[in-house]
Amino acid sequence: MSKNIRTAAVDHLFEAILSLKDSEECYTFFEDICTVNELLSLSQRFEVARMLRSHKTYLEIAEKTGASTATISRVNRSLNYGNDGYDMVFSRMKDGKPE
């Protein structure tokens, strides 16, 4: 069953995120809104996605990121069957490549 995340509260959160101007503002905001572990988990999943798109093996990814194979598999499923959010962001990053 898919949960509907499109709520007014999520809209307000995204509006707040979109108002951030640079990395320093991101650090300030995300350190307030997330626990350290939540932020590290999000960044780990993003790193896993980046490495999967760069054709790294599960073993290489696990060794470098400390992610479990379950996490790597979950991210891989999102990359292959999700909403293409990761790829959208990768295409907009500085060099246009995930790595």
From TrEMBL:
Transmembrane segments: none annotated. SUPFAM superfamilies: TrpR-like (SSF48295). One of its GO terms (molecular function) is sequence-specific DNA binding. Coiled coil: none annotated. Pfam families: Trp_repressor. NCBIfam families: yecD_yerC. This is TrpR YerC/YecD. The lineage of its organism: Bacteria, Bacillati, Bacillota, Clostridia, Lachnospirales.
